[in-house]
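Regression report. Comparing outputs from two consecutive submissions.

Submission 1:
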Amino acid sequence: MPTGTVGVEIDELLIEVIGGYRPSGWENVWIVGGIRYLDLEADIDFAVIGRRSASQDFADPFIGLSWQPRRGNWEYLVEADVGGGIDADFSWSVTLGGAFHFNDRYAASFGYRFIDIDFEDDEFVFDGSMDGIQIGLMITF
């Protein structure tokens, strides 16, 4: 590696368990909540002093609203949530997407998501955002 350069690699794993409740009279709006687990690993390679690594995992609750109108086999999604307070100081996310329902139980989903997390402890600080495309399989119980 040439002198004066820095190489950075960040690996992340984000898992959420989410549930929802639709109050009577709220046709397409759900109150959602759950637990967000994040595992981060950062490797920084300094040309002069070598490689440094740090990792951290944490879990926090979140709560939000989800608007999910359905037209035929297609369902659309606008969702926003806020969380944190246990491990992370604060987090929030916004999702835009849709799903195609094969039947009443299974659907293929797709979307775009932006999430911002502010985490700090004595040895690890992560104040950043992540965004990207998501795909999934929805199963209704």
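Submission 2:
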Amino acid sequence: MLRATRLVELWRDDAPGERRAALVENGHIVEIHIQRDLHWALGETGAGRIDRKTPSGSYLASDDGAEILIRGKAKAGEGARVVFEITREAIAEPGRVKPAEGRVLEAMPEVLRDKDGLWDDRLSALKAVTVRNQSFGDAFDAGIAGASHVGDVTVSFQRTKAGLVFDVDGVGDPVAINLLAAKEIARLLRLYQVGAMVMIDFVAVDSKANRIAIAEAFDAAAAHEPRPFERSAVNGYGLMQVVRARPRPSVLDHLFGTRIVSPSDETQALSLLREAVLASGFGPRIITARPEIATLLTLHKWHPFIQQCERRTGARLEIIADVNASGYGHVHVAQS
């Protein structure tokens, strides 16, 4: 009996301030991973001072000004300096940002894992056979649109404060629609690395046996997903709940931040830096963007990414604010 060949590749697409990777199996992207260097990464260590104590835990201010929640009771008092390790990254949800969480360490580790090392560790865990540089921007299309289409079946999804909500619609037999949707939803959850609570609104079906078959179709499609999950049964109204751990933001969290349907200012600013690096020509790069995006790019914490862009292009980067800029803005390469 012949076994199917499984070719596993890793595509890397790094740009100033944002690292991207796609796990590719037999030519199909199955997982997207993102690390943004503006924020504390899972496993990263640092130092700060305890700012205040609350019933939910202690909030400390890191040396770079970030707020980090230490769950449980901290021995140190307010104002004390402590060393910490990040146990959950900060996560943006519609209307709010949940701060990063960490644990207090007795001392700073002798060997520190910086963002480069943590990213390499994360990618090594994917166990890809080959690694190459490859852009895969179109893999974000469904996420930005908030919908995926499989034949006559439409799977729509949207982030809420409570979690990600899917709605299933289609033409034809409800059971067939749901079976296709269950597979597609499992694929999307893995593709965009979605964690926390997910609510799925299938097309309602009367038969309990059919509802079990729909849930089992989801399980089968999620069998290759390395992250464990728990789910409820599909109830008589067609609702099923799926829960996974959420140590990092999903791709959707990264894209939208605190917004629901439009990319965040951070996403737009990073996209312009990526475009500046990819632009052809040898002259200075001129980014023209809306004032709020231009202001963001000129903040002190963005300076390292501006410098990365200038090193990679060998050209100066200039940022211009324009209230009439459309979309994300644009990049122009000046004549040198």
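Expected: both submissions complete independently.
Actual: both completed, but the second showed a warning that disappeared on reload.
Relevant detail on submission 2: Residues 264-333 form a domain with the Hypothetical Protein Ychn; Chain: A, fold (CATH 3.40.1260.20).
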